[in-house]
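S1.2 Input.
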Amino acid sequence: MALLLSRYFVHLLWLLAFVHASPLAGNSEAHEVGVTLAKFHASSTAVMSECQMLDPSPSLTQFVDSLTFPPLINLSSSSGISDESVLTIGAYKIIQKLHRDLPPTPMYAFGTSQKTASVPGPTLLGTQDVEAHLRWENHIRDETHMFVVDDSLHWARPPDGGVPIVVHLHGAEVASASDGHPDAWFTFNATDTGTTFSTLEHRYSNEQPPTALWYHDHAIGITRLNVAAGLSGVYIISSPDEQKILPIGLPLVIQDKQFYENGEINFPMVGVLPDYHLNWCAEYFGDTMLVNGKIWPFLKVLPRAYRFRLLNACNARFLILSLDNPQMHFLQIGTDGGLLHEPWNLTSLTMAPAERVDVIIDFSKLSNGASVILNNSGPTPFPSGDISQMPAKTYAVLKFIVDEDNGITDGVLHEFETANVNVSSLLIDQKPISEEDAVVSRMLGVVEWDDSNHMPMTFTLDNRTWQDDVTQYPMEGTTEIWELMNLRINAHPIHIHLVQFRVLNQQTFSNRSFELGTCSVNIAYGENGSCYTEPPRDPYIYQRGWKDTVITWPNVVTRVLIRFTQRNGLPFKFDPSEGPGYAWHCHIVDHEDNVMMRPFVVTANESLRALSRNMVSKCKDV
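S1.3 Output.
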């Protein structure tokens, strides 16, 4: 099919292959890996497809339902689990009331039982350096998914039917057998299992610094369906030292969905290119905003400062969050990987799908009865979409109401000054990561393949798909630079399993000159023949700190510095070379399901590392 389409639709096909053998500064061992990239017709404007133009949701009044919070399970308390016991969490089919005026909605949900299952799932609280032992079970009895599965995609295809799931703890330093490998899926009672399935029981060492992670389904080819159906939740790692300074905080899980009059979720059933992918749609954008499973809720707060743990759990929607009171701001104290060395005062928060932000909002200067709305102005698609075309109600997300008598007490900072102090005391065991330590740099293309009408057909990373052979074999204990080269007009959030990394820099390049082959990304900015249009610049402020998901901007090379160790620089306390390996992928899960995902294997084998370091990509048939 791809070959047939290429004969009719290719406006421009360009190929580039290169090997750059110049050593990285300070390390004579380093080499840049070769890369070959290919792309269909380029476009300069965002195009919305018919599959994204769903019937609008019923009209629902905003801010009539109180925000709720998922149940909290302390994994290290006496009522939770110990080193020798297991907490069982299952996936169930439930109905949940999302809005006062909307009938209950069928969903898939996590919980310790059918009765307690909720969307989002329970918030799991782990203690740093105390291992948690969880058993994930599948109790979804549906013979087919509640949404239409596109059989043209590479997906689980259980022989006996059912709804495959596998749980990934996003952001965790974890052995690959417990990582939620996409091919380790299993159906109801593990009747059918994927090729890398080994166990329902996952061990989480919780050895990384305090932070907010999240768990979600990761089954190959249907992650977008399972996440949209409700299979996700928050996982917090805390420590006694952190809790001396800060409360655990309140999770705010933000999603967008579309609904039918009967309360069911409206998810695309017809594909963007039905002749190619019958049911797959490139991005799912709902016209209704949810927080913690409630549609446009309100939250009563005291006139105090609160800690919030924000998660963008949307399939594809980027968020630009702000408060409608110009006198208020966000005090950001943490990112994906944990606390920052110093807080940042921000008037807006840009969040890609899967990113977490740790913030403090101070309501102490507001009078009783005052309200503040948390708004979103992120365009769809991002950043090229036309914000004026967004459904009007998707601007609002959540309403805070100051109530001196009935405000929520959880998450309150009793001494706000402690939030403004330097939190470096919690980071003293963190070994800095240095560019000079890098032993290899990999140029990796982030590519969308379109037809002549700019409609997306498929996506690749480094011109390869999930099914292609492994080409990244980083060696445990080493540091690498991954140069993520976004060749399209929209941003892609790239998530790398196992590790936290730092964004080194970003650099724009001329996509047009690059695709014509008249310049090279191996030539430094300012020299003849360079593709770069500016010198490398520091990452945006919201991309600093430790990250596991990074926004790769269009026509920009985003360089990330990855050390394949624990955050503190010490070896993992498990063998990362055992098991099926890890993944890196776009976290627009609709793209991930259309093979925008690649495997990588951590190795202790020098010969494999050398093979990976010097490998030149092969041109793919189109």
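S1.4 Remarks. The chain has three domains: 2-48+430-614, 52-57+251-426, 72-250.
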